[in-house]
Design a protein that fits this description.
The chain is mainly beta and 135 residues long. It has a single domain, classed as L,D-transpeptidase catalytic domain-like (Beta Barrel), CATH 2.40.440. 8% of the residues lie in helices and 44% in strands. The chain is built from one helix and ten strands; from the N terminus they run βββββββββαβ. A hairpin with a 2-residue loop joins strand 2 and strand 3.
Length: 135
């Protein structure tokens, strides 16, 4: 499948509760990202390792959420890692939450950020998700 869009997460800071960063679509900053802190890639407790991942749009009919979401493929030792709506670390089990604004260990206006991401990508094509630390 041809990759048409790239979503990039640039991790900026980590606290005991969360990993905060910025999120981009094809080089344009959409907002901020929230993930769990690094805990050695433990399922449901840790953010995933940095790297490049393929992803696809998972239809709402096959998800427990009432909207289509972005699901990463072949994340080492992890399943069902997604980009989805949420505000706090407890809203993610290793997934990536976007937001238009941020607070302490939180992102705000997550639905707005998610809808903007979805409007900018070709939902019929495979995506590339790049996760890196800001050095």
């Amino acid at each position: 499948m041809l990759i048409t869009s790239r979503i990039k997460v640039v991790r900026k800071e980590e606290t005991e509760q969360a990993t905060m960063g910025e999120i981009y679509v094809d080089g344009e900053q959409i907002g901020y990202s929230l993930e769990q802190p690094w805990k050695k890639n433990r399922k449901s407790e840790s953010c995933i390792p940095p790297g490049k991942y393929k992803a696809y749009i998972r239809d709402s009919e096959t998800s427990r959420r009432d909207y289509s979401l972005i699901q990463l493929i072949d994340v080492f030792n992890r399943d069902y890692i997604q980009v989805h709506i949420g505000n706090y670390p407890e809203d993610t089990a290793g997934c990536i939450l976007p937001g238009k604004d941020k607070g302490e260990n939180a992102v705000w206006y997550s639905q707005d950020a998610y809808e903007e991401i979805m409007s900018k990508i070709d939902q019929t094509r495979e995506l590339e998700i790049i996760i890196e630390y800001d050095n």
